[in-house]
Amino acid sequence: MHAHRQLAAVALLAGLLAVPAFAANSQTATPTRAELLARSGAGEWRTPDPHNLLVMQLPTGRVLIELAPDFTPLHAANIRTMARQHYYDGLAIVRVQDNFVTQWGDPAADDDDPASKPRSLGKAQATLPPEYTRPIDPKLEWTPLPDGDVYAPEVGFSEGFPAARDPASGEQWLTHCYGMVGVGRDIGPETGSGSELYVVIGQSPRRLDRNLAIAGRVLQGMPLLSALPRGAGPMGFYDKPAQRTPIESVRLASELPPAQRPAVQVLRTDSATFAALLDAQRHRHDAFYKVSSGKVGLCSVDIPVREAKTAQ
Amino acid sequence: MHAHRQLAAVALLAGLLAVPAFAANSQTATPTRAELLARSGAGEWRTPDPHNLLVMQLPTGRVLIELAPDFTPLHAANIRTMARQHYYDGLAIVRVQDNFVTQWGDPAADDDDPASKPRSLGKAQATLPPEYTRPIDPKLEWTPLPDGDVYAPEVGFSEGFPAARDPASGEQWLTHCYGMVGVGRDIGPETGSGSELYVVIGQSPRRLDRNLAIAGRVLQGMPLLSALPRGAGPMGFYDKPAQRTPIESVRLASELPPAQRPAVQVLRTDSATFAALLDAQRHRHDAFYKVSSGKVGLCSVDIPVREAKTAQ
């Protein structure tokens, strides 16, 4: 009984993630994510342009964010300008709202104290045009996800990011999935700059799509942003300054010495292995799963990231 | 400029949650959640049966879980038996996997050490029939959500929980939305008992629907489960015992002295106010939102819970 309990416990762990290691029919079981990735070809992976890769250093570790200049070019340029000026260094994570977002920026800008001095944006723009959507462009990757979506007429992947589009309006846009990084703004649409950014840490708040600019996606380090204590103030803002997590630095990978550049690769969303991963998620057949979902939701797709063997 | 920055910062905070306090057209703006709840009638709220309400005490605070005996009656009964025996007292949160689940149970059951002695289940059953779905029953509440769904033919709310159904098969089931509590199990379908439970802490893993029994929903205390450090072991299990969060106790509210019973109410999912909340989420018109989504996804709905004025 003890031995059985142990086996049961181990298998249970595997079971919740549907790792078919213990499956009786493992010969015919759906391949796992690890198995599919192990079979992938080198050409199916892309190395993010270091000019689009932000390295945010927290006391707890490193967060990598890939910018999305095909969708938000003005914001990417402004964020690059701020990073080059070391604008973000010494700022902080000021807000963590459960099942919604973690947000960082200048605490002095969120402060009611008239003595607070928000940091200068220097050569960066204080406000930018919205960039909530962009025209559909056949030159951009469009890998459709044919499974349907509640919020958009069409969804899929574009240039490695989860995205949606509406052929009727001719627009496409990035979607507020887990790990996507958006640009905080004021009431008016032309009031964001990238000086305050947020990342989605819960169920995807798709109602924000087309209402906020999406600057990019966290490639590594999500647990450093998602597991922070929730703020007790309104909307998850920390009500005590000591609760804020300081940002040690934010650098563009292209500004770092080559030896210090993060060496990561992202699976191409137009690759055969990515398609196989989606299919394995839709049609899972193994001893654990009684029924397969037959479908995969856009924000349930975790685009694989791996350490590269050598720095760029 | 400083004053402007301050206003901008304050408005930005409001803006991300679309609180229209600063909206120029606030006369005609969509009412906020708080406004709609303030107008609700007393009869639109229900008090969870204390026989279905679990009170889990952690060192960091209290988590309330409402059981769902209309969907998983055998599991509810078994969990009640374990709670009455104080089975869970002194167990621990053993796993936190980012963007997936937080899981608790008997650490000794997850241990490879043959000297580990899993706790006795006493009068509780060690395994139960699956209870992944149940027959559609017109006597149960069914409040349809007509917005569509990627995973199920029909979705909506049943007895206060997010749910799905398939008229073709005659089945209905609870869905793996944020905050829903599921029953960990072994590979075989009749291997769960409720001794190991998990809660969804990220994007809803709807592929698990109809593959695992859902025991209920966290009504209060999600941040105590979602903000925990992620485990560094496989699948988010803690690789060091010291990282586990101990469970001080789990009690049925009905077993507590009346003065100690939590006094909470849940908005009825078949109420007019709940319908108005969904509609406000679909069709948001205020100065912040450029476009309204027109739709609301099942797992994007946060069913309101409030403190009651007096204990039950």
From TrEMBL, chains A, B:
Region (Disordered): 104-137
Keywords from the UniProt entry: Isomerase, Rotamase, Signal
Keyword hit for Isomerase: yes
Record EC number: 5.2.1.8
PPIase cyclophilin-type domain residues: 50-252
N-terminal signal peptide: 1-23
GO terms for MF: peptidyl-prolyl cis-trans isomerase activity
Plastid among keywords: no
InterPro entries: Cyclophilin-like_dom_sf (IPR029000), Cyclophilin-type_PPIase_dom (IPR002130), E_coli_cyclophilin_A-like (IPR044665)
Descriptive protein name: peptidylprolyl isomerase
